[in-house]
Amino acid sequence: MIKDSIKRAETYYNISENLKKGFEWIKNNDLKNMPDGKYQLDDVNYANIQTYDTKDNAPYEAHRDYIDIQYMISGEELSGVVDYTNCSTKEKYDKEKDIEFLNCNTPEEFHKIKEPHDAHKPAIKVDMNKKVKKVIVKISV
Question: What mean pLDDT is predicted for residues 106-116?
């Protein structure tokens, strides 16, 4: 997981052409005025724009086929991050949805990233539950 400003997106372009495509899509669209829904970037990469209320807690999730670029359009939330190797399966991996829910018995870290893999717990309230709008661009690995 990388935590950075969209202003520095070009720093990561050399990692993968798909990653570059995802960042460019975020930068070149008026996300505040786009309705919620799925947007295809090409045959395999896509973005999901979602509006939802943050919550008190959430399960950890991990992905195998896609990398998330999570960009907050409006509002704020916390996202817990742990090393995937310190987790066990809570709900079996769903290949079609590319998601696995996990039990993680390790101290949470917020905004600190560790290698080699991460599980994340999105949509957690900062102070109180608030409506947010976020895009999650799914980049094929």
Answer: 50
